[in-house]
């Protein structure tokens, strides 16, 4: 049985679950459903750069700014959100546009591995060699196929560039800002 926050048991077939990462929306409650279980991924942080394989491992609860700040000193970049405040978790599951889209393609095509918790509670890697059918389905399939806890993204050489995207440091919308990486 799954237990809701208030302690009552709810049958599996009727359990409704929301999954929340670091978020793409600046408003409270955007990645949530009222009166259901919310799985909060915001503590799944961490970025680790594998320089030999040109891959960055990113926790699904992180924000793109942390990823960019890790890559920039190395002269590297990866496809990701246009705002450094956006959460990492959802963009690579929904296709994903980035500043590098015309050169590197959608964000999802630059993911080399997804770490996923399946409905059975088994944790698997999903890539071209392991669980390849799930790997293909996750590219645009959203979070309907499991809970992605880590993404491994391809990196590439990139010098300084400038881009403008809307950003917000509070729950109020703010004007677009220019960000230099």
TrEMBL record:
Task: Return the annotated region ranges for Disordered.
Answer: 159-181
Which molecular function GO terms apply here?
A: FAD binding; oxidoreductase activity
Keyword Disulfide bond part of the UniProt annotation: no
Domain of life here? Eukaryota
The yes or no answer to whether the keyword Flavoprotein is present is yes
Q: Which InterPro entries is this protein grouped with?
A: FAD-bd_PCMH, FAD-bd_PCMH-like_sf, FAD-bd_PCMH_sub2, FAD-linked_Oxidoreductase, Oxid_FAD_bind_N
Keywords assigned by UniProt, alphabetized? FAD, Flavoprotein, Oxidoreductase
Which residues belong to any copy of the FAD-binding PCMH-type domain?
Answer: 1-158
**PANTHER family membership:** BINDING OXIDOREDUCTASE, PUTATIVE (AFU_ORTHOLOGUE AFUA_1G17690)-RELATED, FAD-BINDING PCMH-TYPE DOMAIN-CONTAINING PROTEIN-RELATED
**Family under the similarity heading:** Belongs to the oxygen-dependent FAD-linked oxidoreductase family.
Q: Protein name, please?
A: FAD-binding PCMH-type domain-containing protein
């Amino acid at each position: 049985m799954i237990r809701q926050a208030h302690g009552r048991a709810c049958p599996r077939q009727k359990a409704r679950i929301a999954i929340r990462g670091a978020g793409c929306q600046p408003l409270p409650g955007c990645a949530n459903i009222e009166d259901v279980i919310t799985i909060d991924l915001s503590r799944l942080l961490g970025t680790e750069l594998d320089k030999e394989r040109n891959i960055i491992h990113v926790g699904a609860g992180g924000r793109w700014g942390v990823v960019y700040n890790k890559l920039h000193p190395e002269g590297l970049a990866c496809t990701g959100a246009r705002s450094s405040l956006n959460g990492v978790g959802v963009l690579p599951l929904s296709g994903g546009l980035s500043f590098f889209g015309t050169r590197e393609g959608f964000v999802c095509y630059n993911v080399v591995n997804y770490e996923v918790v399946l409905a059975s509670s088994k944790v698997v890697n999903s890539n071209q060699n392991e669980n390849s059918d799930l790997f293909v389905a996750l590219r645009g399939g959203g979070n309907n196929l499991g809970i992605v806890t880590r993404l491994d993204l391809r990196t590439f050489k990139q010098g300084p560039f400038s881009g403008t995207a809307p950003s917000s440091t509070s729950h109020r919308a703010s004007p677009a800002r220019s960000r230099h990486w």
